[in-house]
Amino acid sequence: QQQVKQSPQSLIVQKGGIPIINCAYENTAFDYFPWYQQFPGKGPALLIAIRPDVSEKKEGRFTISFNKSAKQFSLHIMDSQPGDSATYFCAASKDDYKLSFGAGTTVTVRA
Amino acid sequence: DVKVTQSSRYLVKRTGEKVFLECVQDMDHENMFWYRQDPGLGLRLIYFSYDVKMKEKGDIPEGYSVSREKKERFSLILESASTNQTSMYLCASSWAYEQYFGPGTRLTVT
């Protein structure tokens, strides 16, 4: 049973659009919420991460929004570019450093 | 740069064969992990290790075992490969929360 539920499965946007990916969790012991980006033929790489004491974090064009009471967090890609086309995974971890991953979202940004 | 290498990018094995997948990291990380990646299921943790000769089961350990004789090397073993083990296998290492992944091994069992 997946501990982190991710939606949608896939997303297509035009260049400049804002794809939004949502994740939800149940385990309140989770204290670290990263997003990983994976390009075809490559392993996932850390994109951005947030702790539950913060409601929003921005790094460049990528923003995580975190709602602790709803146990939900989301990734927004501002001014999306064709180079952002990839599969994105949300994840969650407790203090044991193990990651529980969502099912992944394939984002396609059309030029 | 952290580098995690996996012994093969593609592997084709027959049902019943013993399969070894090797992973090496060059950053002196304590923690190492093996995942399998399947469409619609994301990454699922098979085994992990916090130190040499230590191993712990992840979420889907059935049919797999691991070995960590040296800090930099973590091996995944399929004792008797089955067709339902056809998948992408990813190795990762970390000091703490951030995990660094290798490029993956796509294993096909026929």
**Helix-strand topology string of chain B:** EEEEEEEEEEE
The assigned structural class of chain A equals mainly beta
User: Measured on Cα atoms, how large is the radius of gyration of chain B?
Assistant: 13 Å
The shape of chain A, in one word, is globular
Termini separation of chain B: 37 Å
Mean pLDDT of chain B: 95
- What global shape of chain B is seen? globular
Oligomeric state, counting identical vs distinct chains: heterodimer
Largest interface: A-B, 23 and 24 residues
Number of strands of chain B: 11
Task: Provide an overview of this structure.
The complex is a heterodimer of chains A (111) and B (110). Chain A is an all-beta fold. Chain A has no helices and 11 strands. In chain A, strands 2, 4, 5, 9, 10 and 11 form a 6-stranded mixed beta sheet that branches. The N and C termini of chain A lie far apart (37 Å). The model of chain A has no long low-confidence stretch (mean pLDDT 96). Chain B is mainly beta and 110 residues long. In chain B, the strands form 2 sheets. In chain B, strands 2, 4, 5, 6, 9, 10 and 11 form a 7-stranded mixed beta sheet that branches. A 4-stranded antiparallel beta sheet of chain B has the order 1-3-8-7, with no helix packed on it. Chains A and B meet through strand 5 and strand 10 of A and strand 4, strand 5, strand 9 and strand 10 of B.
Keywords:
heterodimer, A: 111 residues, mainly beta, 6-stranded mixed sheet, 5-stranded antiparallel sheet, B: 110 residues, 7-stranded mixed sheet, globular
